[in-house]
Amino acid sequence: MQLPDDVVADLAVRLRRAGGQVKAVEAMLEQGRECRDIVTQLSAATKALEQVGFRLIAAGLAYCIEHPEEARSSGYPIEEVQRLFTKLA
Question: Is the pTM of this model over 0.85?
Answer without folding.
Answer: no
